[in-house]
Amino acid sequence: MSSLRMRHQHHTGATVIILVGEIDLASAPELDAYIGEVRQTDADQLVFDMAGVTFLDSSGLRVLLDAHTFALQHGGAIHLTALKGPPARVIEVTDAGRHIRLHTSTDIALAAVFAAPELPAPIADASGMHPLTPG
Asked: Boundaries of each STAS domain copy (predicted)?
């Protein structure tokens, strides 16, 4: 049984993927397949709601970075939201936040997608705070 639960919501031009549990060597292939199944188009903006993610290892990070690369090649982007605890630390230590768009909430990420999807990766949310910095 997988240590990761996944569900999604479609919006025009964006898909929100809600993740709960651990993204590790065992669940990373499932996440990779799920992304391919639920993406509406190759240029879709993918918003990963990470609020329920308790663990992220290098294989999980690789899936997210591969999704980022694919999105860039096709005119899309990925967004990570509500990072906290060990997963936030992985993103911080690896400096992945310099490449992947980070937001404090899914609502803020969707607002960014719908307001200006062509903008470069932000270093802060509309609040002016870096998403990994405690408020």
From this structure: 4-113
